[in-house]
Write a structure and sequence with these properties.
The structure is a single chain. By secondary structure, this protein is α+β, with helices and mostly antiparallel strands. About 35% of the residues lie in helices and about 30% in strands.
Length: about 110
């Protein structure tokens, strides 16, 4: 069986007064994750067009095992702590396996 890429979706609420802190925290870690995390392919941070306190963080991984290994690491906990401090209590984390995309996966 071919391992499937994984997409991790994290939906959070960031109060308006914490937006600057949130974006600075994301900026400070995004290149560290992208350049130094085995299995990480890409990530995005998106803001809702209709609710400025609603944010979506997505990341794509070579497989779900790569994400889960990073998630369990001390490095992950340390890096994301400044982000987490900006979240309200509302958050949702989902994991998906990528079955198809355009253009087709290699």
């Amino acid at each position: 069986m071919i391992e499937q890429r994984a997409r991790v979706v994290f939906l959070v609420r960031v109060p308006d007064e914490r937006t600057g802190d949130f974006l600075r925290a994301y900026q400070s870690i995004r290149h560290l994750v992208a350049e130094g995390t085995p299995g990480h392919l890409v990530d995005q941070v998106c803001r809702s067009a209709t609710n400025p306190e609603q944010w979506l963080i997505t990341s794509e991984w070579v497989n779900l095992a790569a994400f889960e290994a990073w998630e369990r690491s001390a490095q992950h906990r340390d890096l994301v702590q400044p982000l987490r401090e900006c979240f309200s209590e509302e958050e949702l984390s989902l994991r998906f396996l990528v079955y198809a995309q355009t253009p087709a996966l290699a």
